[in-house]
Amino acid sequence: MKTEKYAEITGWGKCVPPAIMTNEDLATFLDTSDEWIRSRTGIGERRISHVGTSELATVAARNALAAADLDPRDLDLIIVGTCTADEIIPNVASKVQKNIGATGAAAFDTNAACSSFFYAMHFATAGIRTGMHKNVLIIGAERLSRVLDWTKRESAVLFGDGAGAMVLQASDEESGLLSSKISCDSDARDVLALDFGLSFDRFNFDGLMPFNFEGQEIFKRAVKGMSAAVEHVFAETGLTMNDVDALIPHQANKRLIDFLAKMCKVPEGKTMLNIQKYGNTSSATLPIAFTEAIETGLVKPGDTIVSAVFGGGLTCGAGIIKWGKRVTPLKDNQMTLPGNGQSALDLVLPLHKGATEAWAKRES
């Protein structure tokens, strides 16, 4: 008789750039303050990367593989979730494959904005549970600092750079993503949009990448979408709120995280919160949060975890994850990204200056 397979999470790791941009740093060139940002978002600081998305993804990947003690040549699939790829072609996943020596792995990117990593987990789990794959590396990686308009307070204060990764492996033990629901509310896709790509006029490009971010509408639809997805996975598994040991959500806004915690009846001490350190790193928030939840002891062997995400598109997802028996990495997974001597302000101020000059030319 065929044994049912599960996609156990055996490896985890992150990469956060060394350059820290505080709220006080932002106030030196934007009309804002630490109090204004914290009271609306819960963010105190964020990281700014001096390297591309693929390099961030590579460090996170190596840490996840070390935690699993898995030879990269044993991987059969790599999925990178990102909306800030280094280039249109080739994809980020192929660069990671080359960097880590995963010669036998297929590799592709997925872009569901902030939901990208969870989308990758959903499809990687399906691939393992159907027997199509055995060892899958999934990564969420973003370098949002390079696409933000640093003259716009409403969006510039929200985002940061980083990457996180997981290794999923076929297992006979009931573990990993037990139920998931993903969706897309495309009627409102334009309320969160970055107008850049093949739609822009490259012959008249002035360096500006308009970022439409309608915060109130996004929040309203995020609440509706994530609530429905969470209710779906509870109904599908037959579990109740009493079965939940931890909540690890997308780190977009503290008010949204607080709403989810209240909905899932999860005490504050059982909700993973690290938005204050990194801001919204889009697809990277979930794997970074999982890694830190394990490192801090929030996640314990056998725990039942609820996750929920929301992103541009408008994409949405939620899942129930059963953690396996191990919360200790098999090998050291604390590789970090070396700095280059530049501070976060060193990296951002030229971007702010460029955007300021571009807006002045456009409006003249």
Shape: globular
Strand order of the largest sheet: 1-7-6-4-5
- Please give the number of β-strands: 13
CATH architecture: 3-Layer(aba) Sandwich
Per CATH, the superfamily is: Thiolase/Chalcone synthase
Give the SSE string: EEHHEHEHEHEHEEEEHEHHHEEH
User: Alpha-carbon distance between the termini?
Assistant: 74 Å
Percentage of residues assigned to helices: 25-40%
Strand content: 15-25%
Low-confidence stretches: none
Number of helical stretches of at least 4 residues: 11
Structural class: alpha/beta
CATH class: Alpha Beta
* Main β-sheet description: 5 strands, mixed
What's the Cα radius of gyration? 20 Å
Give a structural overview.
By secondary structure, the protein is an alpha/beta fold. The chain has a single domain (6-202, 210-363), classed as Peroxisomal Thiolase, Chain A, domain 1. It has 11 helices and 13 strands. The protein has helices at residues 23-26, 34-41, 53-68, 92-100, 116-129, 153-156, 215-237, 254-263, 275-278, 285-295, 344-363, and strands at residues 6-15, 19-22, 45-48, 77-81, 106-110, 135-142, 162-171, 176-184, 192-194, 211-213, 246-247, 304-311, 315-322. The strands form 4 sheets. It has a 5-stranded mixed sheet, sandwiched between helices. Helix 3 crosses helix 4 (92-100) and helix 7 (215-237) packs parallel to helix 8 (254-263). The N and C termini lie far apart (74 Å).
